[in-house]
Amino acid sequence: MGDISKVKTGFLVKGLSHLGYDAINVGTADLNAGGEFVKHLNDQYSADFISANLVYANTNEPVFRPYKILDLDPVNMAKNIPFTSLRVGIFGLLEPRDMLFSGTLNEPPMKSLDPFPIALQTVAELKGQVDVIILLYYGRGNFLEDILKNVPEIDAVAMGGEYFAANRLEREVTTPIGASSTMGKFFNGITLQLNAQKEVIGSDQIRIALTEQIADDPWYLNLVQEYEAKSREMVGTPQSRAQQ
Asked: What is the pTM of this model?
């Protein structure tokens, strides 16, 4: 299980890194092969993993940095922008877990702390530094709902894990929530509207079906073929297992 998990996670991070993501939140599935492997991938691909509540279980020391701050140049991004600079803070959270991977792995154990107090603490730290605060969240919707009802300074959320809860949550809270549903068959995006004081005054969401009409990217086709070949090599074919 550990080896095939490394293959899956390694190819996923390689693909995300190629897309140029500014930050990647750590999810529970990413840690199936252990936390040290994810840290290795972070260094290998400059993947910018973040997590505000993932810590070493024995010391409560953070595994990754809690957030990332981006200095954007809005003038070069769109027309008629009423300001010349924009600072965006992105922080990551995952649902609480006492153990995040098998205890048989020979490495320091990791856990995820209660995300609610960590959200309060991190947002308070970011408020004086940035204009817009984005949360990357992985886990169950009830924890996220609690956060958003009590931390109104969060301007938008990208949600993974219990993604199907996003529609229900948006009826309960005012914060826009983006979630890519149905196993990657759709692309979801959020556009925030800001006034001259850099306050969020509205939002729009886009949802694009990733159908056959969208052209395949050659680099990613090659990556998929590499992944499939490596997976077959790791687990074998049904015939080879029968022969064994």
From this structure: 0.90
Burial of 217 (0-12, 13-18, 19+ CB in 10 A): exposed
- Specify the pairing of strand 186-194 against strand 200-209: antiparallel
Q: Where in the chain are the domains?
A: 2-212
Beta bridge partners of 133: 89
DSSP conformational letter for 64? S
**Strand ranges inside the chain, DSSP E:** 24-25, 49-50, 54-56, 67-72, 86-94, 110-112, 132-139, 156-161, 177-179, 186-194, 200-209
At the top level of CATH, the class of 2-212 is alpha beta
User: With 50 as the cut, is the pLDDT of residue 243 above it?
Assistant: no
Cα separation, 113 vs 105, whole angstroms: 21
Residue 140 CB neighbour total at 10 angstroms: 13
